[in-house]
């Protein structure tokens, strides 16, 4: 393919876009005619525009179909469209200010409500489809067993990841498991780590940025004999070397869908698997929750309130 320039594998000039063009050049002879049409379009496109495009839109733009787009990407070495977007997004998010990225998101979808709806749902589906094969049975088994054996589960999340961490704690408690949320940073986090001990399990929900707190928590867990499960967008990062189980949960490359969307679905998977391992405990906890809720609904008014009404 003559239109793509040569790139080397090292050096500061190598970006997601240059890696894409190199993949097109190297795979060109193995592509079908329709796959070449997709590859040629991808190589010539402005990288930022690819971040916001769906497979269907790329198929239409290249004169092919969304299925051809997926096949072409796989031939180029990507797991799918989300994987390409993730690679391109690294350069995009590091060089473009957040407010500019927001302007580009709005400019891409426009004001058509149907288009906005479809774009959000399309990206959500893309991210979940990307994550499903990454959570293979062996990884899932080890993660579930780590939590099942735990005296108490500690879920740690900050920023957008706090939502998924709190969701995990809520659902674990509703299945009869001891769990607590930790979201402190800085010196105040030290107090939260004092109670962590042997037989506990830690679930770390790591966003794109690696904070010092994540490393300290993982090292503390290892030193006291607690198991660790990492749910992250960076399964090959330095934190992965310090934990027992790593679950890949791809984040959004565009910001169109919630950062914690995939992590929350992973949490739901873990909790349902745990409930299936000990059904009597989960059923009893659900019953007790129902009883307590009914007592709160049926509770009589305080005497002072009745007196004021009279």
How would you describe the overall organization of this protein?
The protein is built from 15 helices and 5 strands. By secondary structure, it is an alpha/beta fold. A 5-stranded parallel β-sheet has the order 2-1-3-4-5, with helices on both faces. Strand 1, helix 10 and strand 2 form a beta-alpha-beta unit. Helix 1 runs antiparallel to helix 2 and helix 4 packs across helix 5. The protein starts with 15 loop residues before the first helix and ends with a helix.
Strand content: 5-15%
Shape descriptor: globular
Mean pLDDT over all positions: 86
User: What share of the residues lie within helices?
Assistant: 55-70%
How many strand elements? 5
Q: How many angstroms separate the termini?
A: 87 Å
CATH classification, class level of the largest domain: Alpha Beta
**Major β-sheet annotation:** 5 strands, parallel
Based on secondary structure, the structural category is alpha/beta
Largest sheet strand order: 2-1-3-4-5
* Count of separate structural domains: 2
Radius of gyration, in Å, reads 24 Å
């Amino acid at each position: 393919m003559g239109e793509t320039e040569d790139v080397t594998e090292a050096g500061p000039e190598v970006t997601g876009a240059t890696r894409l063009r190199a993949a097109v050049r190297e795979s060109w002879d193995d592509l079908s005619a329709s796959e070449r049409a997709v590859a040629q379009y991808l190589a010539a496109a402005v990288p930022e525009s690819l971040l916001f495009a769906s497979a269907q839109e790329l198929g239409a733009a290249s004169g092919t179909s969304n299925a051809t787009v997926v096949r072409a990407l796989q031939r180029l070495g990507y797991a799918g469209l989300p994987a390409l977007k993730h690679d391109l997004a690294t350069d995009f998010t590091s060089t473009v200010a957040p407010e500019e990225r927001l302007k580009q998101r709005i400019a891409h979808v426009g004001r058509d409500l149907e288009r906005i709806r479809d774009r959000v749902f399309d990206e959500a589906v893309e991210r979940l489809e990307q994550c499903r094969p990454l959570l293979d049975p062996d990884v899932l088994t080890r993660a579930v067993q780590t939590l099942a054996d735990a005296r108490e589960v500690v879920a740690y999340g900050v920023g957008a990841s706090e939502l998924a961490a709190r969701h995990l704690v809520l659902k674990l408690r509703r299945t009869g498991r001891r769990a607590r949320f930790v979201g402190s940073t800085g010196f105040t986090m030290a107090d939260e780590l004092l109670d962590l001990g042997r037989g506990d399990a830690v679930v770390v929900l790591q966003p794109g940025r690696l904070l010092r707190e994540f490393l300290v928590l993982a090292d503390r867990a290892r030193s006291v004999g607690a198991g660790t499960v990492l749910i992250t967008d960076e399964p090959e990062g330095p934190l992965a070397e310090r934990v027992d189980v790593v679950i890949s949960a791809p984040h959004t490359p565009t910001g169109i869908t919630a950062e914690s969307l995939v992590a929350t679905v992973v949490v739901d998977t873990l909790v349902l698997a745990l409930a299936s391992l000990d059904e009597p405990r989960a059923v009893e906890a659900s019953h007790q929750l129902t009883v307590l809720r009914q007592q709160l609904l049926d509770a009589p008014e305080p005497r002072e309130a009745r007196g004021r009404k009279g």
